[in-house]
Amino acid sequence: MAGENVPYRQSLLDAMAVLNGQWVPAVLASLAPGPLNFTDLLNAINAVEERSGWVNHVRPLTRKVLTETLSRLQRDGIVQRQSTPDALFQPVYYELTPMGSSLLRSVRPLIKWAQDHQAELESARQRRGP
């Protein structure tokens, strides 16, 4: 009986592993509207964090950490790197793959759940302490 949940549990762990990472949600949300080059992606993420008062992160996203995050998301098939041939240089853009777009659509109910239960979550965390 206990083994019946193994495939479900493994699938949940696989999904959570893809979403794991301090900056993964920010990258996914920033790429949702469409492709961005590296610098625009970095600036977009940091601008949102700055507007929110750095509630979710202590310091700005660095180029190194964004590179690592994008590499992992590319490895997992969530983000793809596209270069556009140009006479002088090849601009590089990052965009969600179809699987990445599907992932983003799939987590929307989870986001709604978190919004619906935000007060209870905060209350429970305060009772529990750091």
UniProtKB/TrEMBL annotation:
| Keyword field contains Transcription | yes
Q: Say if the entry is tagged with keyword DNA repair.
A: no
Q: Taxonomic classification, please?
A: Bacteria, Bacillati, Actinomycetota, Actinomycetes, Pseudonocardiales
Q: What is this protein called?
A: Transcriptional regulator, HxlR family
InterPro entries xrefs:
HTH_HxlR (IPR002577), WH-like_DNA-bd_sf (IPR036388), WH_DNA-bd_sf (IPR036390)
Q: Which residues form the HTH hxlR-type domain?
A: 6-122
Q: Which UniProt keywords apply?
A: DNA-binding, Transcription, Transcription regulation
Matches recorded under PANTHER family: TRANSCRIPTIONAL REGULATOR, MARR FAMILY, TRANSCRIPTIONAL REGULATORY PROTEIN
Q: Which Gene3D superfamilies match?
A: Winged helix-like DNA-binding domain superfamily/Winged helix DNA-binding domain (1.10.10.10)
Out of the domains of life, which is the source?
Answer: Bacteria
MF terms per GO, please? DNA binding
